[in-house]
Specification:
Elements (H helix, E strand, L loop, with lengths): L3 E3 L2 E3 L13 E2 L10 H18 L1 E3 L2 H10 L2 E3 L4 E3 L2 H8 L5 E4 L8 E4 L2 E4 L7 E4 L3 E4 L2 H13 L5 E2 L11 H15 L3 E4 L4 H15 L2 H6 L3 E7 L4 E2 L1 H12 L4 E9 L7 H22 L5 E4 L1 E5 L6 E2 L3 H17 L3 E4 L10 H16 L4 E3 L4 E2 L4 E3 H18 L6 H4 L1 H7 L9 H4 L17 H6 L5 H14 L8 H18 L6
Parallel strand pairs: 4-15, 9-21, 10-23, 12-13, 13-14, 14-16, 16-17, 16-18, 17-20, 20-21
Antiparallel strand pairs: 1-2, 3-9, 4-6, 5-6, 7-8, 10-11, 18-19, 22-23
Helix pairs in contact: 1-9, 3-9, 4-5, 5-6, 5-18, 6-8, 9-10, 10-11, 12-17
Length: 509
């Protein structure tokens, strides 16, 4: 029998971290609502005031033309637009409350919306770290390694296309290398970059090759992209041009303002969230003006700045509050919601990383966020993708899966006969009820150590990060590429080779 050797003892390969039959995750709990209905209405009204009376910059002529044609007031000289509340709310109302994202393997298809929760890897980390070589610029090999781990780990639903930046690849080619890696080393749902029209078009064309053509994916969306507002109150040309490529072809985007209260918004969280809401509504409305009914996600990424250092602060109570209120606003407008689950400022996968991560993950789950970015691997305010933190986080996500599954209440699980059989003062280790259920009754960890002190020392006395490092490499040794039709693999390779040839004169840019 195939077994994975962990800490000197055999462990069956059905560990929660190993590849296993896909399980969608639904949250049976009612979402936590931090604001009263009256407070929520105040935020809503303040956001509409911002849209109408302050307005936003849209640094993209085609976008300004769309707004003007829809009836917005546009100043072409400053690339600024003032958006009527009726125009915005009417457009936002056309976006669906729920949709399906299709994966290369249909078993990994995802529902985005309702009480469905989908965990994504860390994204956009320029650096990579592990216990062997420490912190260093990311490489293509690091990116490929992390895609493989994300494919192997059942609690991960979405592979972030910007997982770690492969800095050993010329910038002009990077998205091509990342795209072919994502589509060949994983068959889960992926995200792609919104780094301008050309990059978005390449990702769209790669996806079309894999899924049967542009017409097919326009009806069944297969990629998800994050579009950031350049807060405060600005969308730049790169994001807007990519947004148009994706939305015109039916591929959903997440509109995500990135606000640090005290720096990109006023210091109060009420003002920060009102501004976040205005920016999000503007971007969501734009998607519906371009392609009515196209799926779109309300994104929240608001936290505070550290007023002593000026640095972003992650895993904070303020960030948790913003996450809960952002989800409440998304439900108010009938939209799916994106949060973030693993945010922290720690430099190592240590206690700070753990408690700040929990301050982000629990609000995301309690808010009933539908897409949870940065759920595994995030360190150092997002600058670092950590191998060990990834595994530690995935165990946390596996525990969350188990927790949200709830408990079964039946005559069999109430076990009154077993209680009567043992009676007062006995034990249940040897009862038929226990023996028939003990293998699957409880969550079985792979990283957590439950040995006594002497046994822990005998097996090396390793801390959690060291155990995670070992487990990551053991998992990678089991990796097998998901099946892909050889003709599709060849078509992907041919497309990337052709595009590299077309870009060869721009390598030094």
């Amino acid at each position: 029998m195939n077994r994975t050797r962990i800490r000197g003892r055999d462990r069956q390969p059905d560990s929660p971290l190993a590849d296993k039959p896909f399980r969608p995750l639904v949250n049976p709990l009612r979402p936590v609502e931090m604001l009263t209905p009256e407070q929520l209405e105040q935020i809503h009204t303040a956001s509409l005031h911002i849209l109408e009376n302050i307005g936003l910059d849209f640094l993209h002529e085609e976008t300004l033309a769309i707004w003007q044609a829809a009836g917005a007031k546009v100043d072409w000289a400053t690339q600024h637009a003032w958006l009527d509340r009726g125009l915005v709310l009417e457009a936002v109302a056309q976006a669906p409350a729920q949709f399906t994202l299709y994966a290369r393997n249909p078993a990994h298809n995802l529902t985005i919306g309702g009480n469905h929760i989908n965990f994504a890897t860390v994204g956009a980390a320029p650096y990579y770290s592990d216990q062997e070589r420490g912190r260093r610029p990311g490489t293509l090999a690091d990116f490929q390694r992390m895609v493989k781990l994300a494919q192997l780990c059942g609690p991960i639903h979405i592979v972030e296309g910007l997982l770690v930046e492969p800095q050993d690849i010329p910038v002009v080619y990077r998205n091509l290398e990342k795209g072919i890696t994502l589509f060949t080393l994983s068959d889960k749902v992926i995200t792609t970059a919104a780094h301008g029209q050309e990059v978005a078009t390449d990702y769209l064309n790669l996806a079309a090759l894999v899924f049967g053509g542009l017409e097919t994916i326009e009806q069944k969306p297969v990629i998800l992209s994050n579009v950031n507002a350049n807060s405060p109150l600005r969308f730049d040309e790169r994001m807007l041009s990519a947004l148009q490529v994706y939305i015109r072809h039916g591929q959903p985007v997440i509109i995500t303002p990135f606000i640090l209260a005290g720096a990109m918004s006023p210091i109060t969280m009420a003002a920060a969230i009102a501004q976040q809401n205005a920016e999000a509504l503007a971007g969501i409305a734009l998607t519906q003006l371009i392609n009515p009914g196209c799926p779109v996600v309300y994104g929240g990424f608001t936290t505070n700045v550290d007023m002593q250092s000026g640095s972003p602060a992650f895993g904070t109570p303020e960030g948790g509050m913003a996450l809960l209120v952002g989800a409440q606003l998304a439900r108010y407008y009938g939209l799916p919601y994106r949060g973030s689950g693993g945010l922290n400022n720690a430099k190592l996968p240590d206690a700070q990383a753990a408690y700040e991560t929990q301050m982000s993950l629990w609000p995301a789950v309690l808010a009933q966020a539908n897409v949870v970015f940065h759920s595994a691997g995030w360190l150092e305010a997002g600058l670092v993708c950590s191998l060990e933190k990834f595994i530690l986080d995935v165990e946390g996500l596996a525990m969350m899966h188990h927790f949200l599954a709830g408990m079964e209440i039946t005559p069999e699980t109430l076990a009154l006969d077993a209680i009567a059989e043992v009676g007062p003062g006995g034990h249940h280790f040897g009862t038929a009820h226990t023996l028939s259920r003990f293998r699957e009754a409880f969550y079985r960890p792979i990283v957590s150590d439950r040995q006594n002190y002497e046994a822990w020392l005998e097996h090396g006395g390793l801390d959690a990060a060291a155990r995670a490092h070992t487990i990551a490499h053991q998992l990678l040794n089991t990796y097998q590429s998901p099946s892909l039709d050889p003709s599709l693999a060849e078509a992907l390779q041919d497309y990337v080779a052709r595009r590299k040839g077309e870009m060869s004169g721009r390598v030094g840019e």
